[in-house]
Description:
Helix content: under 10%
Oligomer: single chain
Strand content: 35-45%
Number of strands: 15
Number of helices: 1
Strand order of the largest sheet: 5-2-7-8-9-14
Amino acid sequence: MSEPNGPGIILSNKSAQEQTYVFYDNFWNGVGTAGANFDHPGTSVTLQPGETQFVSLPDTFKGRVQRGTQLPATWVEFQVKADNDGAAHGDISLEQGCDGAATISATDGSGRSNGFSDDILSGAPDAALGQRSDGVKALATTMGNWTGGPNQAAINYLNQVVGQQKAYIVGGTGTDDVASSNMCLAVDFY
Length: 190
C-alpha cells in the first residue's frame, strides 16, 4: 500500500474480484445539500482482491467514491476538509442503490467507523432489485431518479438488514457521521 501523504482516502478492496472505484466530485455544495455529479467521473483506481491504496485528493474534494460508473450502486460520500472543523467527514449512502457492502473509518486514532460489511445482496427479494446494464446484481434506488421512483421493497429490506444508523436509506437524519481530524478516511468495499 502507498502510505498516506496528506489529505485523501485509504481505499481497500475486500471483495474476491478485481474492482475499479471511481471518484465523483460534487457539482456544488451547500449547508446540508449537494449537487451530485452523475456523469463526470474523476479519478479511478483499480484494485486487486485484498489490495489497499492511498488515493491523494485535494482538501476541497466533496463527493463520493463508488464501484465503477453504473447505477444502482453503493455510495461512500465524504468531504476531505469541512469548513466548520477542518476534518474529513463521511458516510455510506444506499439512496442510489446498493451493489455491495462498504465501511468508512477515521484514521486519526479516534476509532470512529460506520457502514456494514455483510453480504445483503444474496438474500434480497426480487422486488428490491434494480437493473444494471453490466449485469451486476444491485438493490434499486430508495429515493428515485431518472430511471423511476423510490423502490419500496428496497427501502423495507434495507431498513431490516442495514438500518438508517449505518447508512442513508431514505435521506434525512439518523446516520452516524464519521469524522477524522487528519483529513484522511479509510474506505473498505466488500
